[in-house]
């Protein structure tokens, strides 16, 4: 079928058409509608025509057919952390019931439903001492993370999430269901690896699994903020020689003297050897040291309470060539400005070795050595917007001299700006993504791709600065 074609239900009202689906439907005015359309960033407000809670791939297919008959936009929701998960006047497909998984320990692969969140995946795979490098918040959807790149504490060893993606089931705009992998459609798979271009609804994914062991040496060491420069320089020197299995990063919370600098540790391998690797950090004399042998999933969850859904947010991300003294000092100075207790900047080492060749991924790493994410997070009070937006913007500006590429697209989807997303890709990648978008979603049912203009009804951002 093609978008706009008619069927027996084409003359029915939207509620009547949706009533033919064997799954839960929410419409405006229903008890949980507002909560189920809310996203992580409370600055974003949209209202779809309906929410379809898809329990099977067949539900997705039928919902897309209904949307196509009525030329409605379709956007997808798993954990609700992404901002492109609802459309004014469109259909929101909530796929979090698609949460099955199947682990092949011999092949070291896992096949999952498109609705799985990271807590579910981490807990399932660590039982066999395996993992997929992924998001640092347990409630985030795995699918959105992979399609947008995917930063994680073990990225240094295994690359971003999308580097481990080997296949996917996708429902296209014409209602067809395709399995995409290196054999069936390598170009489509290339785009799914961090391309952040909505080509269809991903209902299943298959990933490579990596050894993590039953337990890891992980946690964080906290130092007084006045020692930030000293501590981060020491960490930088340690990583220059450390093996890739030593993962982690730096977390600077807003506010100078009252703040802290935290070094996150996530290290696989024998505990004795791992302890020896991090000994130089302990010799610095942290004010708090909670690094110990833990389950990998607990390390993944340890900062969950610092990113509560429903806050107002301003998020920046970037890939930088080198963490020079000048850039580091400027970033510390910007982060020292008082802000809310939730706001923070994460500075993280990129992959040491190329787990997957850059040519096989739409994600453009630009040869970066480090990445940063500036998270301005504050209570849902619009009057607080100007100062907190400025904090996040100023921290990001401090990294500008070292920027080689805007950060992973998953972070830059903030505020629904396709032009901003386009800056994540070089011209060749952007051209390839545009061709695929035109081929597989010519009507733009699933929203704009990077650099494409968004239809006005699909986005509404409360701007206060």
Fold and architecture overview:
It is a single chain. The protein has helices spanning 14-18, 33-37, 57-69, 118-126, 142-147, 155-158, 186-192, 228-241, 271-282, 296-301, 325-335, 385-398, 409-412, 418-422, 427-440, and strands at 25-26, 50-53, 74-77, 91-94, 101-104, 109-113, 130-131, 165-171, 177-181, 201-208, 210-211, 216-224, 246-253, 260-267, 288-289, 292-294, 312-320, 344-349, 370-378, 403-406. By secondary structure, the chain is α+β, with helices and mostly antiparallel strands. It folds into three domains: 14-94, Uridine Diphospho-n-acetylenolpyruvylglucosamine Reductase, domain 2; 101-212 and 428-441, Uridine Diphospho-n-acetylenolpyruvylglucosamine Reductase, domain 3, CATH 3.30.465.10; 216-416, Vanillyl-alcohol Oxidase, Chain A, domain 3. A hairpin with a 6-residue loop joins strand 13 (246-253) and strand 14 (260-267). Helix 8 (228-241) crosses helix 11 (325-335). The longest helix is centred in the middle third of the chain and has 14 residues, at 228-241. The model is unreliable at 1-10 and 455-465 (pLDDT under 50).
Secondary structure: elements and pairs:
Layout: H1 14-18, E1 25-26, H2 33-37, E2 50-53, H3 57-69, E3 74-77, E4 91-94, E5 101-104, E6 109-113, H4 118-126, E7 130-131, H5 142-147, H6 155-158, E8 165-171, E9 177-181, H7 186-192, E10 201-208, E11 210-211, E12 216-224, H8 228-241, E13 246-253, E14 260-267, H9 271-282, E15 288-289, E16 292-294, H10 296-301, E17 312-320, H11 325-335, E18 344-349, E19 370-378, H12 385-398, E20 403-406, H13 409-412, H14 418-422, H15 427-440
Parallel strand pairs: 2-4, 3-4
Antiparallel strand pairs: 1-2, 5-6, 6-10, 7-11, 8-9, 8-10, 12-14, 12-15, 12-16, 13-14, 13-18, 17-19, 17-20, 18-19
Helix pairs in contact: 8-11, 11-12
């Amino acid at each position: 079928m093609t978008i706009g074609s008619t069927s027996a239900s084409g003359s029915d009202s939207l509620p009547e058409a949706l009533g033919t689906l064997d799954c839960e439907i929410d419409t405006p005015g229903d008890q949980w509608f507002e909560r189920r359309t809310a996203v992580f960033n409370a600055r974003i407000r949209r209202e779809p025509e309906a929410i379809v809670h898809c329990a099977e791939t067949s539900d997705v297919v039928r919902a897309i057919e209904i949307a196509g008959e009525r030329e409605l936009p379709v956007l997808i929701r798993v954990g609700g952390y992404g901002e492109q998960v609802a459309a004014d006047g469109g259909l929101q497909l909530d796929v979090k019931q698609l949460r099955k998984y199947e682990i092949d320990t011999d092949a070291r692969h896992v096949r999952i439903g498109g609705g799985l969140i990271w807590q579910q995946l981490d807990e399932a795979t660590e039982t066999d001492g395996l993992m997929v490098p992924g998001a640092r918040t347990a409630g985030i959807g795995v699918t959105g993370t992979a399609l947008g790149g995917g930063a994680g504490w073990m990225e240094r060893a295994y690359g971003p999430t999308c580097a481990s993606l080997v296949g996917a089931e996708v429902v296209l705009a014409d209602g067809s269901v395709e399995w995409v992998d290196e054999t069936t459609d390598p170009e489509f798979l290339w785009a799914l690896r961090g391309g952040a271009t909505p080509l269809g609804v991903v209902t299943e994914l298959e990933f490579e699994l990596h050894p993590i062991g039953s337990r890891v040496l992980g946690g964080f060491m906290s130092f007084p903020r006045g020692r930030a420069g000293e501590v981060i320089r020491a960490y930088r020197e340690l990583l220059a020689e450390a093996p890739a299995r030593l993962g982690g990063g730096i977390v600077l919370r807003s506010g100078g003297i009252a703040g802290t600098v935290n070094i996150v540790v996530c290290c696989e391998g024998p505990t004795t050897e791992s302890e020896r690797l991090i000994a130089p950090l302990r010799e610095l004399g942290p004010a708090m040291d909670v690094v110990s042998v833990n389950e990998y999933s607990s390390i993944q969850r340890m900062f969950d309470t610092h990113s509560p859904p429903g806050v107002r947010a301003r998020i920046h991300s970037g890939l930088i060539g080198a963490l020079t003294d000048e850039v580091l000092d400027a970033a510390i100075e910007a982060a020292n400005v008082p802000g809310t207790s939730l706001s923070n900047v994460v500075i993280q080492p990129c992959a040491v070795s190329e787990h997957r060749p850059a040519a096989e991924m739409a994600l453009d790493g630009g040869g970066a050595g480090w990445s940063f994410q500036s998270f301005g997070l504050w209570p849902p009070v619009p009057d607080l917007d100007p100062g907190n937006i400025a904090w996040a913007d100023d921290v990001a500006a401090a990294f500008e001299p070292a920027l080689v590429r805007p950060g992973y697209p998953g972070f830059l989807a903030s505020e629904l700006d396709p032009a901003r997303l386009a800056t994540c890709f070089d011209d060749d990648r952007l051209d390839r993504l545009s061709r695929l978008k035109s081929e597989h979603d010519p009507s733009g049912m699933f929203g704009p791709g990077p650099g494409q203009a968004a239809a006005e009804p699909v986005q509404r951002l409360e701007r206060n600065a």
